[in-house]
Amino acid sequence: PGYVLFNYFTSIFFPSDxxxxxxxxxxxxxxxxxxxxxxxxSPILSVIIIILYPMIFLQSFFVLRQxxxxxxxxFSLPYIERRKFWSFLLILLIAxxxxxxxxxxxxxxxxxxSNYSVLNIRHFPILVFIVFLLRFTFTRIAYDxxxxxxxxSSDSNILVPFLFFITTFLYIYFIKQNNTxxxxxxxxxxxxxxxxxxxxxxxxxxxxxxYFSFFLCIIILDLxxxxxxxxxxxxxxxxxxxxxxxxxxxxxxxxxxxIKY
Length: 261
Hints:
Elements: H1 2-13, H2 19-39, H3 43-52, H4 54-58, H5 64-74, H6 77-81, H7 85-98, H8 108-112, H9 124-144, H10 159-174, H11 181-199, H12 216-226, H13 231-251
Helix pairs in contact: 2-5, 5-7, 9-11, 10-11, 10-12, 12-13
């Protein structure tokens, strides 16, 4: 319903062709830049990765509702840190009104204030329970509803989930967290995203990565900084070239078109 209202008011105030894409892009870019400003230690490099990595900004032109929901959710992150549940829930409900799958982000509020870690052996029983619960929920929703089958697809590209899993795991394992609210939030986000990875083994993450891949642009830079110089700079440069290659590879297949409505 939120997306329907968004379309309606956009057509009233901006009746020109393609205005929906312009207004949507402004919201998406604003939400992502807000998160980069708040949580990235290298904002400029994060913005470059967001632009080049085809699963974020480039994809937002085609997976419009989901990226709108994700960008709106970014504005709820400060309320997780301040422990203001109702403010967080209000923004999350707005995101859900654009795309129901945004409901998957709700547990981050409670993970933030816990000492849970997927790498802590004492939490193994809880880990197993949550993984099986998430897996059961995802498969029931995805395979009982035709609209959501592409969210969990064994035929999707394995490269993105693999990069997603490895980066998240390495970040949690190697990066020493300071006791700041920003670090706690990034760590909670990554612990939850690793749980999502584990619960979808054999299914692939599909479009679920859209809610978590954005934080790759933030955490992967911290991993590069852990490498000794000048190795860190070389690895970062190679990674930027790789994202540029992906950007060119994906965008070269896009047909030229215009939207009329």
